[in-house]
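Progress report, Aim 2. The chain analyzed during this reporting quarter is listed below.
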Amino acid sequence: MKERERDSRDEELLRLKAKLGEVTMANELLEQKIAALEGGRPLGRRRSRR
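Predicted structure tokens for the chain:
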């Protein structure tokens, strides 16, 4: 079976899928942070800004 040539739509689709993955991961991390804050559990240790 012959594979069709890639065009700009394919590149845009790949870019959007990557962006969706990034946004999904950020959303999951925020949900974990909210759960930790609502549960009264301490968050991970942070470095001083000094």
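Helices lie at 8-38. Residues 9-38 form one domain. These observations will guide the mutagenesis work planned for the next reporting period.
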